[in-house]
Amino acid sequence: MYRFEHTWVLWGLALIPLMLLGFYFVNTWRKKARKRFAEHALMNQLMPSYSNAKYKTKFYLFLLAYLLLIVGISNPQIGSKLEEVKREGIDLIVALDVSNSMKAEDLSPNRLERAKRAMLQLLNELKSDRLGIIVFAGQAYTQLPITTDYAAAKLFLNTIDTDIVPTQGTAIGSAIELAMESFDYEQGGNKALIIVTDGENHEDDAIAAAEEARQKGIKIFTIGMGTPIGAPIPVFKRGEQIGFRQDGNGNTVVSSLNEEMLSEIATAGEGLYIRATNSNAGFDRILDVLSGLEKTEFESQVYTDYEDRFQFFLGAALFFFLLSLSINEKKSKWKERLNLFES
User: Fold this and answer.
1) In what order do the strands lie in the sheet with 273-275?
2) Tens digits of per-residue pLDDT, 122-145?
3) Cα 10–chain centre separation
4) pLDDT score for 342
């Protein structure tokens, strides 16, 4: 496993595009300046030993040295010691609604983005619990199997959007059924499912699925994204909003939070329903409840020791930097002789 000890140093790589842009403008200016001074043939006679190719090579070698220097300072490390670590926690799955109605903007910036930000905060607060992510619209899909790798969970969370599922709709029951299949029942212990949605269920019997999950020892919590008043659903084309979704009669469709449905699902799953707001999505209240549940001991593999690899990158950076300094901008002697012969 690789990691960077000082990740903030990698921001220095952002200077590389600026260096390339600056080099382009300087090189263009030099060409125009030489052209104003004299024609190309005359310039070759006035400066027979100058090599523009070496000038570019020298810059690119310096740029490569800079890149390696930044990577070296950030100190790449490789995991060298893998250990079995015993942890205590619960199995938790978050089922996130990615239907088009989650783009409604009655929460800022919209329901889906507000939910994703709240889930990111949840990941920062989790300690030893195992987490899985399910996304659902017309059907449910496993986005991340149950794991203790919170870093991977954050990466998968960033990719979630309404276009990652092929079938639109809202099938909360399908998400509950997939969660029941995803839990590991052999290890026992408490299991919880958090459903994050606006509650507009049109596809199945979510309450019956919640009751079945409760019988398997799964507690179900629901978080309502949106407001009872609701908001229109934006329609996007190529990343730009072109209007709002309309029904068959040309009326703007307003998506409202179905609190009654979500309360019934939470009651059937012996959990808790919370309505999200712009300031608090409700995950903290759910975590308070989950912290009182009995924990299960399980083992996970983690890297406990890392070896530094900065020396290879710094050594290569020094080599290419010295190589760039050793290159002059004069043509090689054999090329000068060739040019002399041609003239």
Assistant:
1) 140-147, 130-136, 91-97, 191-197, 218-224, 273-275
2) 998 888 788 999 999 989 999 999
3) 17
4) 47
In this structure, the number of other CB atoms found within 10 A of the CB of residue 180 comes to: 18
Task: Give the model's pLDDT for residue 250.
Answer: 86
Q: Is 11 helix (H, G, I), strand (E, B) or coil?
A: helix
What's the token pair of residue 49?
Answer: 């030993």
Residues 213 and 269: beta-carbon distance below 8 Å: yes
Beta bridge partners of 87: 298
CA distances from residue 178 to 26, 40, 130, 173 in whole angstroms, order as listed: 59, 72, 17, 9
**Which residues lie across from 306 on neighbouring strands?**
79
- Threshold 0.70, pTM exceeds: no
- For 149-156, the CB contacts below 8 A with 24+ separation are 150/123, 150/126, 153/123, 154/120, 154/123
The DSSP 8-state label assigned to residue 139 in this structure reads S
Residues of the chain with pLDDT under 70: 1, 34-52, 79-87, 187-188, 201-203, 294, 296-305, 329-343
CATH of region 84-300, choose from 3.30.1330.60, 3.40.190.10, 3.40.50.1000, 3.40.50.410: 3.40.50.410
Domain ranges of the chain: 2-75+309-342, 84-300
Closest to 199 in 3D by CA, of 231, 165, 222: 222
Task: Please identify which residue in the block is written with the tokens 């990466």.
Answer: 155
Q: Enter the DSSP assignment of 50.
A: B
φ, ψ at 18 (rounded to 5°): -70, -40
- In this prediction, residue 40 carries a pLDDT of 55
Residue 153: the pLDDT is: 92
Type of residue found at 187 = Q
